[in-house]
Amino acid sequence: MGRHSDYRRLIWRVLGAAAGPLSAEDLRDALAETGIGIATVYRHLKDGLSDGDLVCVELPGGPKRFEPADQPHHHYFECVECQAVFDLVGCPGGLDRLVPPGFEMDRHEVILSGRCHDCVSSGREAN
Amino acid sequence: MGRHSDYRRLIWRVLGAAAGPLSAEDLRDALAETGIGIATVYRHLKDGLSDGDLVCVELPGGPKRFEPADQPHHHYFECVECQAVFDLVGCPGGLDRLVPPGFEMDRHEVILSGRCHDCVSSGREAN
DNA sequence: ACATTAATGATATCGTATTATCGTTATCAG
DNA sequence: CTGATAACGATAATACGATATCATTAATGT
């Protein structure tokens, strides 16, 4: 095997412990001490997608983010200050009544945005 | 004045008649007969944003889309077949209860996806 | 007619996220 | 030790949306 075949394990561990989906850069930063290169991060993320272990989350105006595939249906909160994305629990009902006649909905996404706990309590302000 | 100062009017007319927000490319295609260039489209869109006449809508994995600013709060349906985006009327309630303690929500977005009326009735299938 | 100005189109350039290339290095088998 | 293999890092290349540049042309005023 190659030099550090445990990078994959490290990435999985970081993703598993995260409060929400992480981007490739987030992961590289989280593992900066190990000296991991961005190419390696993308490689493992790609493998994870093919293997079905990871899912990709796209939010408006940001890079692709990734999280373990074995999570129940949920949505996201994006902090406008620190750009972090947090998983939310639960799902609002009543979405079906928004669907126009003749349309067929098979997915939905709910994205809340505002300031996260840390940014609120540290008083960071939008400018 | 310049050659065709009515491009702006044309763009506004197309946006006003559209079933949802349009991208710069959508607009160029809609006005293809006029020979409008993509630079002109972007120029007028940019002006519209500065003037507050237009708003920008970003959906995951797509280009920026634009629509008139004088519309009531609403959400979107994106067709996975033809990629068109449609305005929806109404807004599901109960989003506040998704906000974790200590977080402050100031915006939300709801995006439904599936197949639009035309793609359903014409039998186009996802592959 | 002539000069001025503003709008335009072609295209070059940019920014950013992502992927591909390739030489290097660690690990392992014989 | 030697050769093969797989993982790696640096970085070149790509994709694509958006912007900047610049010469051209239409409308306007004189």
What does this structure look like?
The structure is a homodimer of 127-residue chains. Chain A is of the alpha+beta class and 127 residues long. Chain A has 2 domains: 1-70, Arc Repressor Mutant, subunit A (Orthogonal Bundle); 72-127, Dna Ligase, domain 1 (2-Layer Sandwich), CATH 3.30.1490. Chain A contains 4 helices and 6 strands. The first copy, chain A, has helices spanning 7-17, 24-30, 38-51, 117-121; strands at 22-23, 54-57, 65-68, 75-79, 85-88, 104-115. Chain A has a 3-stranded antiparallel sheet. A 3-stranded mixed sheet of chain A has the order 5-4-6. In chain A, strand 4 and strand 5 (85-88) form a beta hairpin. Chain A is globular and about 50 Å long. The A-B interface holds A 58-61, 75, 77, 80, 86, 88-90, 92-95, 97-117, 120-121 and B 58-61, 75, 77, 80, 86, 88-90, 92-95, 97-117, 120-121. Strand 6 (104-115) of chain A pairs antiparallel with strand 6 of chain B. The structure holds a DNA duplex (30 and 30 nucleotides).
Shape of chain A: globular
Order of secondary-structure elements of chain A: HEHHEEEEEH
Mean pLDDT of chain A: 93
CATH fold-level assignment of the largest domain in chain A: Arc Repressor Mutant, subunit A
End-to-end distance of chain A: 50 Å
Tell me roughly what share of residues is in helical segments of chain A.
Answer: 25-40%
Count of DSSP-assigned helices of chain A: 4
CATH class call of the largest domain in chain A: Mainly Alpha
How much of the sequence lies in strands of chain A comes to 15-25%
Our Rg estimate of chain A from Cα atoms comes to 17 Å
Physical arrangement of strands within the biggest beta sheet of chain A: 1-3-2
Low-confidence stretches of chain A: none
Structural class of chain A: alpha+beta
Give the strand tally of chain A. Answer: 6
Number of domains of chain A: 2
CATH architectural name of the largest domain in chain A: Orthogonal Bundle
Largest interface: A-B, 38 and 38 residues
Task: State the assembly state of the protein chains.
Answer: homodimer
**Main sheet record of chain A:** 3 strands, antiparallel
Annotated CATH homologous superfamily of the largest domain in chain A: Winged helix-like DNA-binding domain superfamily/Winged helix DNA-binding domain
